[in-house]
């Protein structure tokens, strides 16, 4: 019997279960316990985010940000079409209108040169997503946000430990949302984190994160009782989840080293396909780094891509394609303004993502690469 090579496999650093047990043993099972604070400190100290909040998912980090922005019915949010639905849905829940932007010709990231034409007097937010941990052109994003007085937010679900001209992704925007879903480099099963870099939002973020109370101010000794002071929600995970996450964060260097090795091996093996004009390997701009989040190929067209997925499946290797562009989704199709977004559509049609996880042996990367080359023979 041959087992399939999976697309993803959750990684365990070793101390996860011990941390979960410890969180329980300390008797602080609810949110914002010792492990939560250690996770916050890790992000703030290592990468320089101003203030961080663990959340139960990246989607929830977006919801929290959308609440903080105080969006009104009809406010417009510009974001890429080629992204995951979590980037979008929290803003729709607040009544915002989504204006989708196209991808670059040579990378799924948003084409920043096409964004200014989409800005109207209703535009309130510019949201960028760093696909595969590869930086969007942040000089352009920051300049546009400043010029038009927009809130800048970064979807860094793929982009932990990734940089633009040496500066960590997620430090450019007023807000940034991380994911610790099991498919991400660092995981707690489900989980997320909201980084708030703009100090003006921090007091309100403390309140929203904790169900609309001023408990944070109470814990700092600034008020003598904690009360209901605003609207909020329950976005904090249990400290056991934070314990699991912390075990992974402590191993971040190991994780990144290994994942980058896997990425480079795929790249070395498969770049010959690009040289021969058969398929394209990922493009990495000078200003970006590679954080080993995912590896993909771009095929000639949808038919060829679909048949490669089938071929790999027959050879017991699981591959996937996504995203499907959001402007064409059943939910948004009729709400979109009708502009074609040809690059986003082309990436959706031609992309294939290859198995990628910490424990994937380089020998298996070679085997997968050989199978792909067989397909083109
Ligand atoms: C995974 C992912 C999300 C959502 O993450 P959850 O933690 O599952 O809510 C959002 N955006 C992108 C780009 C993602 O890949």
- Order of H and E elements: HHEHEHEEHEEEEEHHHHEHHEH
Beta fraction = 5-15%
Please name the fourth-level CATH homologous superfamily of the largest domain.
Answer: Type I PLP-dependent aspartate aminotransferase-like (Major domain)
| Separation, N- and C-terminal Cα atoms | 27 Å
Number of helices: 12
Q: Round the Cα radius of gyration to an integer and report it.
A: 21 Å
Average pLDDT metric: 96
**Which structural class best describes the helix and strand composition?**
alpha/beta
Number of domains: 2
**CATH topology of the largest domain, which one?**
Aspartate Aminotransferase, domain 2
Low-confidence stretches: none
Counted beta strands: 11
Helix proportion range:
25-40%
Q: What ions, cofactors and ligands are bound?
A: pyridoxal-5'-phosphate
Strand order of the largest sheet: 1-9-8-5-4-2-3
Briefly, what CATH class of the largest domain?
A: Alpha Beta
Q: Which CATH architecture of the largest domain is right? A: 3-Layer(aba) Sandwich
Any idea what the shape is?
Answer: globular
Oligomer: single chain
Largest β-sheet summary: 7 strands, mixed
Explain how this protein is built:
The two termini are 27 Å apart. The mean pLDDT is 96. The strands form 3 sheets. Strands 1-9-8-5-4-2-3 form a 7-stranded mixed beta sheet, with helices on both faces. Helix 2 runs parallel beside helix 8, helix 9 (252-275) packs parallel to helix 12 (362-375) and helix 10 (302-314) runs parallel beside helix 11. The protein is globular, with a radius of gyration of 21 Å. It is built from 12 helices and 11 strands. It has 377 residues and is α/β, with parallel strands linked by helices. The chain folds into 2 domains: 16-249, Aspartate Aminotransferase, domain 2 (3-Layer(aba) Sandwich), CATH 3.40.640; 252-376, Aspartate Aminotransferase, domain 1 (Alpha-Beta Complex), CATH 3.90.1150.10. Pyridoxal-5'-phosphate binds at residues 57-59, 83-84, 86-87, 129, 155, 157-158, 179, 181, 192.
